[in-house]
């Protein structure tokens, strides 16, 4: 009897949660929809404990990395001297760990998919900055599905198989100055960068500002992002 090939291991940095009623304590979590999206694409999702340790050694056993969404990065991480009132869920250890994971994955060529906060982490890791709050009475990029235009010839287009996609967004911040070498691969109608890539990167890498896990179970373009990561990780 021939056994099926092992699923590639996809490291997903956990997110700190202040309360989880079922466990009675604070916890480290990842969104179930995100985990299921990786599994559906053929990967083995593994939550990675954020700790101030040798990230290079810890990532060595994995085949790919998914940097997920979460709270905001501390503004001082990208050189800001003030903090907007809307900045929330900042955690110093989380920031340190995520930034190290982003840098090590890019340096080593480990396949990397970055989602929402994850895209912002990559931008900051490469020296870029963020707009701390997009403003606007409607906060058009929170709790909203809106179209994004995808640049042709990008890994994002290859993964989604589309030049336009419906993006499930939940963000009040956006990329301001691009990190070194990064290029915008998708934009919303108002010009907000919704995708980033690093031409010449050692490994497969794409980033989106939206949450593909929200609709990946029914949208082939969104599923394609997870499938692309898993293919690159095999």
From TrEMBL:
SUPFAM superfamilies reported for this sequence: Class I glutamine amidotransferase-like
Keyword Hydrolase: yes
Keywords, ordered alphabetically: Hydrolase
Molecular function (Gene Ontology), one example: hydrolase activity
InterPro entries from the UniProt entry: Class_I_gatase-like, Peptidase_C26, PuuD-like
One of the Pfam families matching this protein, by short name: Peptidase_C26
Membrane-crossing residue ranges in chain numbering: none
Record-given protein name: Gamma-glutamyl-gamma-aminobutyrate hydrolase family protein
Species name: Streptomyces vastus
């Amino acid at each position: 009897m021939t056994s099926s090939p092992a699923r590639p291991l996809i490291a997903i940095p956990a997110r700190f949660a202040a309360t989880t009623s079922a466990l009675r304590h604070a916890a480290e979590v990842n969104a179930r929809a995100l985990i299921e999206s990786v599994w559906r694409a053929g990967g083995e999702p593994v939550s990675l404990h954020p700790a101030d340790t040798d990230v290079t050694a810890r990532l060595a056993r994995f085949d790919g990395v998914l940097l997920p969404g979460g709270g905001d990065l501390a503004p001082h991480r990208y050189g800001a001297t003030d903090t907007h009132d809307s900045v929330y869920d900042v955690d110093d250890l989380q920031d340190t760990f995520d930034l190290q994971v982003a840098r090590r994955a890019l340096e080593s060529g480990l396949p990397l998919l970055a989602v929402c906060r994850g895209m912002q982490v990559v931008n900051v890791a490469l020296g870029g900055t963020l707009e701390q709050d997009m403003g606007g009475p409607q906060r058009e990029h929170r709790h909203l599905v809106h179209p994004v235009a995808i640049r042709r010839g990008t890994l994002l287009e290859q993964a989604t198989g589309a030049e336009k996609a419906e993006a499930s967004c939940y963000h009040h911040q956006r990329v301001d100055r691009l990190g070194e070498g990064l290029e915008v691969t998708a934009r919303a109608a108002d010009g907000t960068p919704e995708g980033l890539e690093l031409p010449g990167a050692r490994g497969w890498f794409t980033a989106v500002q939206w949450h593909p896990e929200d609709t990946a179970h029914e949208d082939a373009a969104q599923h394609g992002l997870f499938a692309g990561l898993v293919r690159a990780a095999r």
